[in-house]
Amino acid sequence: MLEVRNLRKVYGEEPGGYVALEGISIDIAAGEFLCLLGPSGCGKSTLLNILAGFEEVSAGSVMFDGRPVKGADRDRMMFFQDAGSALLPWLTVEENVRFALRARRVPRSQWDDIITRYLSMVDLNNHRTKFPAELSGGMRQRLQIARALAVEPRVLLMDEPFAALDAMIRRRMHAILTDIWQRSGQTIVFVTHDIAEAIALADRIAIMSVGPCSSFMKIMDVKGARPRDMGDPASSAMFAEIERLLTPEIRRSEERLG
Ligand SMILES: Nc1ncnc2c1ncn2[C@@H]1O[C@H](COP(=O)(O)OP(=O)(O)OP(=O)(O)O)[C@@H](O)[C@H]1O
Ligand SMILES: [Mg+2]
């Protein structure tokens, strides 16, 4: 569904600009859960922003359903970043979801069903008339996930959405996201620098090298039924393999940052 071919991204003028990405190619299938994994500054957000149509490519192409991605395509792709900041504080829980449905022109006759379905999935159906300020941090996050998914975008692009959460809430978010993804058949591209998070969630993990000229070092299939436990032999072996790949990269990145 998404085809990335030989993508290159340079910030600034060439020559002399910063080559963030070089020679990135991948096909992302409908319904797939892909994680982009790599050290800080390797270009994960850059790549996600290009998929979203927020950033232009310097060379190569990105195709969605066989057509080039040009500009943000808000009806088909949804961008989701730093959960906790994007709720509308003057609207209640259900109004926040309704607002998103209206903005995406979902037919009004479907609103009630969709709102109930998605709020139930994240256990917020009993809190529909509360305002964001009356919710806990974890509840606000769940509301954001429900709202992002309720518009049923074909592709959900997530940039380290759970990075700020503590480990227990993050695990719960993983379970909720996995559940909704399995039921909805949506395609998810999820950025993280957390190896365990990538293994817990993904069908495939694309591991990125440190920039400049970051590219995919390896694209790995993740096997094993969900929920995946890092204690499983397969998961812990994969963790070790990714760590072996990334450790020298992280060292290089630290040297580069001084
Ligand atoms: N607008 C910009 N102008 C110039 N350089 C940029 C710009 N945006 C990003 N960069 C550079 O491109 C590289 C990749 O940045 P990007 O934000 O994509 O990394 P990242 O992998 O998302 O990092 P993090 O894990 O810290 O979020 C970095 O070296 C960054 O400094
Ligand atoms: Mg980033």
From TrEMBL:
Q: Per its UniProt record, what Gene3D superfamilies does this chain match?
A: P-loop containing nucleotide triphosphate hydrolases
Q: Which InterPro entries match?
A: AAA+_ATPase (IPR003593), ABC_transporter-like_ATP-bd (IPR003439), ABC_transporter-like_CS (IPR017871), ABC_transporter_ATP-bind (IPR050166), P-loop_NTPase (IPR027417)
Instruction: Extract one GO molecular function annotation from the record.
Output: ATP hydrolysis activity
List residues of the ABC transporter domain. Answer: 2-235
Q: Which UniProt keywords apply?
A: ATP-binding, Nucleotide-binding, Transport
Return any one Pfam family short name.
ABC_tran
- Indicate the family of this protein: Belongs to the ABC transporter superfamily.
Kindly provide the name given to this protein in its UniProt entry. ABC transporter ATP-binding protein
Species name: Ancylobacter mangrovi
